[in-house]
Every structure is written in structure tokens, then in C-alpha cells.
Amino acid sequence: MxxxxxxxxxxxxSEDEKTTKSLTGVDIVxxxxxxxxxxxxxxxxxxxxxxxxxxxxxxxxxxxxxAAVIPKPASKPVTPEKKAIKKEKKASMFHTVQKGxxxxxxxxxxxxxxxxxxxxxxxxxxxxxxxxNNILIR
Length: 138
Fold this sequence. Notes:
The protein is mainly α. About 55% of the residues lie in helices and about 5% in strands.
């Protein structure tokens, strides 16, 4: 029984070796080229069909009068367009915190509020500032 099993496994291995040998080298390249040709022909057919549809649409549009293609605007009273007024952004201004300074003293120095400084710098109410920190003033 064991001999029969070994003989059977040997025949399977020899068949596998034949298939792997046949798919080496040139055969692998031929297989890839065949797959690429198939993919290319499918893409080309799809593109030709799409181009045909586009050509049909263009031919139909050429046959229609221009007025039918472009709808006439409804008659509304003409109002002049309002031009947007550009607000000039003030240049950003920073302050470097010195020893002994607080948000209150900085806000008084630049004529702003503590809450505005907190908002500009994303500071919470319990956040602390330290000498050397750069704080955005505007």
C-alpha cells in the first residue's frame, strides 16, 4: 500500500514539474502578452463605443437650432452687481512675553481685551503664559 502511495505521489510530482517547466521563460512572457492584448482590445472597444456615442450626440446637436439649445433668460429687472469690498487684513502682530507680564498688562499695552487675546491664541481661562512666549496681538 505504501509503495502504491509513493508511486502515485511520484507521478503527481513529475506532472507538476512539467507544468512549471512549461511556464518558465518564454511561456510566461507569452501568457502576459496575451493578457495585455486582451485587456487592450477590451479598452479599445469601450473607447470606440464611447466615441461613437459622442459623435451621434454632436450630430444631433448640429441639427437643432441654436435657440433651442440655449434657453432664453427670464426677463428680470436688471440690478447692478454689488462689488465686494475687500477688507485689508492687518498684518499679524506678535508680542514676546517678558518677565512679570500678564495677559492683563499686555491687553492694556495694545488696547485690546483679555478675552480677545485668549481667543486669538486659543488659550483657556486657566492657561498660563511664560516669559519668551510669543502671543498674537492681532
